[in-house]
Amino acid sequence: xxxxxxxxxxxxxxxxxxxxxxxxxxxxxxxxxxxxxxxxxxxxxxxxxxxxxxxxxxxxxxxxxxxxxxxxxxxxxxxxxxxxxxxxxxxxxxxxxxxxxxxxxxxxxxxxxxxxxxxxxxxxxxxxxxxxxxxxxxxxxxxxxxxxxxxxxxxxxxxxxxxxxxxxxxxxxxxxxxxxxxxxxxxxxxxxxxxxxxxxxxxxxxxxxxxxxxxxxxxxxxxxxxxxxxxxxxxxxxxxxxxxxxxxxxxxxxxxxxxxxxxxxxxxxxxxxxxxxxxxxxxxxxxxxxxxxxxxxxxxxxxxxxxxxxxxxxxxxxxxxxxxxxxxxxxxxxxxxxxxxxxxxxxxxxxxxxxxxxxxxxxxxxxxxxxxxxxxxxxxxxxxxxxxxxxxxxxxxxxxxxxxxxxxxxxxxxxxxxxxxxxxxxxxxxxxxxxxxxxxxxxxxxxxxxxxxxxxxxxxxxxxxxxxxxxxxxxxxxxxxxxxxxxxxxxx
Length: 492
Fold this sequence. Notes:
Layout (H helix, E strand, L loop, with lengths): L8 H34 L9 H29 L1 H21 L3 H29 L5 H29 L3 H4 L1 H15 L14 H24 L4 H23 L13 H31 L4 H8 L1 H12 L1 H7 L1 H22 L6 H29 L6 H27 L8 H27 L33
């Protein structure tokens, strides 16, 4: 018996399993950000909370690992089958969540976050392929839009959900993944389809994955530790040198390897390179904004995690609304104008904070207008940038190119967090107002650079077929069932 949508009970269950797993991995970003100050208080050292530099690795270890493995996991799914890779990712992510919840030290938590990212990397590139193999051909467009909307839903629910969990204990932000993961595994074994593997070529360069991880981790380490070690410290110089050497080696391997981790030669295409650069700088600004708002509310205004989560809701909740409303505009006016408007709105939100901010809480005057402006900016710009880059590629390279862009977004997030920690130092206090202003000013400059990219895109010709709807983010690999580009859903 089938539903009015043409899906049997088994197919509906499989669809729910896929959406739940993707929702779980997207939700993790938001609830961990909200929980970060509570983690610092839990891992005290010498009677003081853990330093912001140390806590930043809870975010950055995850982002770096995910960026390095998205392409590898997507290609692995194409070779051995999407179902086993997806379910393996669910198992790894769930078990790593247990390890995060039980972590006795900050170092153990960071290591568990690395394992969590491995599980997320296995789930995200395979999820859309499985969803498209589950639904009838006529329902695939609707299914793809729903899949892409999961990131927006997680962004809207994440701050409040994370705040509620932290009110109990920050460890519950990881415990909540366990029943979801267990249910997804049990139901997935019984209901998920098994699309035939269609790729027999070599896996992407695994040494390339190691090199890009080392390069970004070393650069992040140098940035976050420099305020405490000193910018002239030998250790800072050593980490910077390691980042440069590993980065150069990665670039060379990517240029010569028969199956590079990231096909950097695509950056020679002007329109794709512009969209990629815009995505990177905008993602850096977004990472600065997201973490700075959490730290400001909890460490300067001394709000609870729940109050912080509730306060942050308007921004992420606005993103999917604006994305949907601007979908037709992308087809009518092209991607460039939307990106320019989005970058400008985000910059206005950051400038607003630098002008109106006060250590005395004033949500309606200070934070709320900024959240509305930046949320609208993300809705206009982020998905549109990725769509613009993918459209500039020949169809056979669309999946590869979007994989590169999605990896760049994760790496940019790491850079944004590291830069913010560098500007704020090891501790955040009410006296850190000027440091926050500097961070928001930098985010505004990066957003204006994104707007400039939009203007550049508007001056260059659109190529290929009609652009994808703003906010749909294709990425790594191709769907074994339908040949549809796939990747992690956009996380605002």
